[in-house]
Specification:
The complex is a heterodimer of chains A (about 120) and B (about 475). Chain A is of the alpha+beta class. Chain A contains three helices and four strands, in the order ββαββαα. A four-stranded antiparallel β-sheet of chain A has the order 1-2-4-3. In chain A, a hairpin with a 2-residue loop joins β3 and β4. The longest helix of chain A has about 40 residues. Chain B has about 475 residues and is an alpha/beta fold. The radius of gyration of chain B is 24 Å and the shape is globular. The chains are: A alpha+beta (about 120), B alpha/beta (about 475).
Chain lengths: ~120, ~475
């Protein structure tokens, strides 16, 4: 964990990276424990509340949060983003683990519709 | 002899996850859904333990296994069953298009606040569909593979061109002798022009009447304006006449929520109940035309509509508790998707989207649109969803056009960002027209989408009520049948 200041979050490997500027809200996530995919999905999911800039900094992904509302509390935003990252990590994990079964179910579902034959026969 | 429970118990790490998605309903409750939307409520800790393989709660594991959320390694049956259910849910796809909307005139004697399409004087015949155009549209409609064909007459006010309604009905019946489809007719009318001749025709042809009723007199007449300010009286009188002549099940009504409706859910539903209407559809205003500019009674956000919807749903449930049968139609459509493998075929809640493959719209001038909302956009000079014209487009031109295929493929929820991992994906739909109108692309940014926010709100509300209220759970099961 390379982030300066603040305690690491056990679930996400996130740390408060401290304020680089007066108005900046940043969080650092350890690249060893957090996928970039999960961070990008999280940034997408919270877009109604904040936009997020993600940069690589040493062994961390450093996320800068930009609230859409000026009266949004910094700590609330950090909790909100960390919670979203936790959920996205879980979603990515489940999706990865179940992908072969998902593909099997879809293959079984569409193998008997006649649609596959129709496609094949051109 | 004592049966050994251990024989069916799953040891730690003794199960495999099946494809599942989750949504946090509140701080201590998470709903898990499988590929086809079957669901189980768990706590956040239970979710973690199930994913980690450390769960020791055999009763929970049994429930998850029964709902095809986990399986024992090596099992084949869960995948087979999920595939059958998935195929059942999508069985309508090869049988496109069931609904054909004929805009027989743009003329209307109402000037409703929220209407985008009918501002034409009742005297201008140039806004009427001709027999030639209607005949070409019927030829295209009968090309649809769907064994069911519903022809819906819309406007404007379709009864202003009643001779054409008669002509299309007769011609469709004649053509159907060759095609043998399950043919049905609907007239979407404000009922102000209803007379004995029209009623007799509807009785003879078993036509269903769909009308608009926004609630109590002052609210309805404030929204739906006509000379004499008697729209409500005409609608109520018309509903009663149809009920008496054709039967109570042959007329249904739709309401549109304007800002003036908010806070009046109980009165609106009370009006429906007094008229003996068994269903109410609590619909938000469409985000087209005036509504996009914040006019026509559209000055409210999704949060306020959800409050209105929740209050209305409570009122409908209360009526049922008192022995008055009443269905909230949107909840019943969602219930079918949540609790059965049937596809209710509701155009806004399907993926691939319902445009074109669920419904086609033939405008008075012969232009063909992928949906009614697509036609409304065209009235605002956005012809993105115009697929052709009955006079120069073939069936293949329409159904294989980029204008239809691009929005269909770009908006499929199984691959759309956020939708693909959303627990509510099996209940929801792609709405490329809405997202094009509000965001400028067919997929839309779901985190910013009012469609997503509204439906997530309704799904969460229904699930919470099912979890907490056994009476509501039973009622929703009945609505799903």
């Amino acid at each position: 964990m390379s982030a300066a200041g603040g305690a690491a979050d056990a679930g996400t490997g996130a740390a408060d990276a401290g304020a680089a500027g007066a108005a900046e809200i940043t969080l650092a996530f350890d690249q060893a424990t957090v996928d970039l995919d999960a961070l990008q999905r999280s940034a997408y999911a919270v877009a109604a509340e904040m936009t997020v800039d993600i940069r690589v900094c040493g062994a961390d992904y450093v996320c800068t949060l930009f609230p859409r509302k000026h009266d949004a509390a910094d700590e609330e935003l950090k909790h909100r983003f960390r919670a979203e990252v936790n959920d996205q990590i879980l979603r990515v994990r489940i999706a990865k683990e179940t992908e072969p079964l998902r593909n099997l179910v879809f293959a079984l579902a569409f193998s008997r519709t006649g649609l596959v034959d129709a496609e094949g026969s051109g | 002899m004592k049966l050994e429970r251990a024989a069916t118990a799953l040891p730690r790490h003794g199960w495999q996850l099946l494809p599942l998605r989750f949504h946090r309903l509140d701080a201590d409750s998470v709903v898990l859904t499988n590929l086809v939307g079957e669901h189980v409520f768990v706590t956040p800790d239970e979710l973690g333990a199930v994913v980690d393989g450390t769960c020791a709660d055999q009763e929970l594991l049994a429930r998850l296994r029964a709902a095809h959320l986990i399986q024992v390694p090596g099992e084949r049956l869960p995948a087979e069953l999920l595939a059958i259910k998935l195929r059942t849910r999508m069985r309508r796809l090869p049988d496109s298009t069931g609904l054909h909307i004929f805009v027989v005139t743009l003329r209307c004697e109402h000037t409703c606040r929220y209407c985008q399409v009918s501002r034409q004087s009742a005297a201008k015949n140039e806004f009427d569909m001709t027999e030639e155009t209607a005949g070409r549209a019927l030829e295209l409609a009968f090309r649809s593979p769907s064994p069911q064909l519903k022809i819906e007459f819309q406007g404007g006010e379709p009864l202003l061109n009643f001779p054409l309604v008669r002509w299309i009905t007769a011609e469709a019946n004649r053509m159907n002798k060759e095609h043998g489809k399950d043919l049905a007719f609907v007239i979407a009318t404000n009922l102000a022009l209803l007379d004995d001749e029209i009623l007799g025709f509807c009785a003879e042809e078993q036509i269903h009447i769909s009308t608009s009723l926004d609630g109590p007199q002052d609210l309805h007449n404030g929204n739906r304006r006509r000379p004499g300010r008697d729209s409500w009286q005409q609608a109520v009188s018309g509903i009663r006449r149809v009920q008496e002549r054709l039967g109570t099940d042959r007329v249904s009504a739709l309401m549109t929520t304007t800002e003036a409706s908010l806070g009046r859910a109980a009165e609106i539903i009370g009006t429906y109940a007094e008229l003996g209407l068994r269903g109410v559809f609590l619909r938000p205003i469409s985000p087209y035309g005036f509504a996009l500019r914040g006019r026509g009674g559209a000055n409210y956000d999704v949060g306020r509509w959800l409050e209105f919807y929740a209050a209305g749903l409570d009122q409908v449930v209360e009526l049922n508790r008192q022995g008055v049968p009443m269905v909230e139609m949107y909840a019943s459509i969602i219930a079918k998707k949540m609790l059965t493998n049937a596809d209710p075929g509701y155009v806004d809640l399907t993926s691939p989207a319902g445009i074109g493959i669920g419904a086609l719209v033939y405008n008075y001038d012969g232009d063909i649109y992928a949906s009614d909302e697509g036609r409304m956009l065209a009235e605002m000079d956005d012809r993105t969803f115009r697929l052709g014209n009955v006079h120069d487009s073939s069936y293949a031109d329409i159904m294989l056009s980029d204008g239809l295929l691009n929005p269909l493929t770009e908006s499929i929820t199984l691959s759309a960002p956020m939708c693909a991992t959303c627990a509510f994906e099996p209940y929801c739909g792609a709405d490329p027209v809405f997202h094009h109108a509000t965001m400028g692309d067919f997929t839309g940014h779901k985190a910013l989408s009012a469609f997503c926010q509204r439906n997530m709100g309704v799904f969460s509300l229904l699930l919470r009520k099912m979890r907490d209220d056994p009476y509501f759970r039973d009622l929703l099961w009945r609505w799903a049948q």
